[in-house]
Structures are given as structure tokens and as C-alpha cells.
């Protein structure tokens, strides 16, 4: 559910720019002459496994039916999508509609491969600001995301009640609760701190909520956030294994009763619901100081329109993206996949109909795009973040020095 980037693919953005310059306009898949009726569109996405593959297919088929077209869909593993885009650009076979993880939109838009949606009658009015930031480049909108996700704090209701602990609202309360909930065979807290972009993603609520910023990773606010992770592990309230865990591993620990609280996203809810013995709830990520606003990262994929010399097909692709982002489809996809609609006006209705998503609905309003400040340089910062986390949690550097060391300073 979160970014599955390939370092090589991202580094290849410059190569893609050169390819496009050499090849000119992309053929956009199966061609049709301008002015003729468009009867089909090609679509590329990375939802290659069920249940998401089938759920997304229903949404695609619904819009195809509304527009009176057929679709030819190709799905690939998430970690191969960017390389696939590079290859298709080279061979002038980019699809008519391309799905991208939201942090990748600016990267691909910068190469000139995508058509600005504004030029085809689409806009981001009413969409969560963080998502508009993620899918815009040089003042133009290049993608729209029907749904989004973020991360927050899950807790085991029975375990907290038994220990007389309230869901924490501050970091001090979080550390105290985690310590009280820890006992043989069970940690109070679980999170992912592995050496991947996923480890960076899970650290962002602590960093951003505390006023830390990826444009200055050596600030006291960032060090304080890292110290929170260090304190939880050093005190024994979180396992030393967090440096290796994925978000799936964290969820497994929670379901098995080996963790009383965890940082995770709503995509884990289906597996939690399959284990009715686990009584759980969710709150926003705690703040360091009273008065701060919990800020978490935005996940989710955006649908884009690659440049196409066939203007009729390009416009039809834009109409298809518009359909995918209709109020009806946003709500349907969000309900089916435990995600959140990106239009703020739909959030109250959605949370009323899906109460388990209440905390995520609150969290997502103030959530931020990972590329919001650094744009296509975000992956470099993300790498420094997860390397610094590893250094601090393994005792190779203090929280104050870890980021300096990770950035080569």
C-alpha cells in the first residue's frame, strides 16, 4: 500500500527524459486517427494480486461501461513499474492511462512523459491538499488519486483495559503505556524501522508531528523524533527486531498478541477482521507536546495520462481518470479496500459508514505528501532517514549524530 520504489528506476528518470526527447510524442498504445471514435484504452497498474486486483478491476470496468469503451489492462509487480515505464517510453508504447504511486508522479512528470490534466478539463478542487501537492509539478496537475491511506496507532483494547492504560495522546504517555503493557512474551509497542523506504515512511509521523523537516534532517526536532524510537527499544518496550520488520511483520506481532500497540495502516484491517479474538481500535499518532497537530504521510496511487499524439484518445483517457475519481467511485473504492476518499467533503459520510476508519479520517486531513517539499529529491532524503534510524537503534550513533553520519557529514 505504500511506495515500492526501485532506486535504479528512479535514477533512470533522466534516461527517460532523453528517450522522450529522442522519440517525440508517444504512440499511446493502440493508435487511432484523430477525430475518430475512441473505442478502447490501455491501462497499466501494479495491482497484480487479489483482492486488490479484482476490486480495482470492478472500478475500471464501471468507468469503461460509462464511457462506452473497452479496456486492455496490464498489471505488473509494484517494484517493476518504473522500469516498465522506462521501457515503454523507449518503445513508444506507454499506455493510455498509467497508475503511479503518488511519490512517483512528480518524477515522471518532470521527464515530460505525462499530459497536464488541467489542459483536459480536470482539476484538484476539493481534494486533500497533500495529495494535490504530490500529484502536481511546476504548477500543473498530472494525476488524481481516488483513494488514499496513511498510518496511525492501533491498540489492543483488552490489553489496555487490563493494564488500566488509556490510548496515549503524547509521547510521554506512549512511552509510559508501552512500558506498562510490556511483559514476558509481549512488547508494549511495535513499529517498522527497517532499512527501506517503508522504515522511513513509518518514522514520518514522529518527525513531522514534532516539526521536523526533511529539508533539515540535522535539526533538534528530527533528533527528538528519533530519540522516541531509541527510547522505546532501549527500554525494552519495543523489540530490537524492529530494525528488520516489515509492516506486515508488525501486524503479525499484533495479531499474535506479542504487541499491545503498533504503528500501521488501514490495509491491515482485513487481516485483523479475520481474527475476531483481537479487539482493536485506532487513534491518531501521539504528539510530543500538547498543542501539536499529528501529521502523517499520505499513501495511495494516482492515475495519470501519458502524452499521446492522438488527441481524441488522450482526452478519452482524461475522461476515464475523471470517472475513476467521481464521488461514487471514491466512496466505493474506499469502502471495498479500507482506504480513504481523497475529497474532503466525502470524509464525514465515509467515516459514518465505516466507523473503524474514524482515526484515519482525522489523520489524513493534515497528512502530507512525501514529495511535498523535496519533489523528486525525496528518495535521497528517505534513504538518509532509514540509514540514520538503523545507526541509532543499533547503537552506532546517538539520535543527535545519526542523521549527520548517515548523510556523510
Automatic annotation (TrEMBL):
Alphabetically ordered keywords of this record: Signal, Sugar transport, Transport
Keyword Signal among record annotations: yes
Keyword Signal: yes
SUPFAM superfamilies: Periplasmic binding protein-like II
Origin: domain of life: Bacteria
InterPro entries xrefs: SBP
Annotated GO CC locations: ATP-binding cassette (ABC) transporter complex, substrate-binding subunit-containing
Extent of the signal sequence: 1-21
Protein name (record): Multiple sugar transport system substrate-binding protein
Protein source organism: Kribbella antiqua
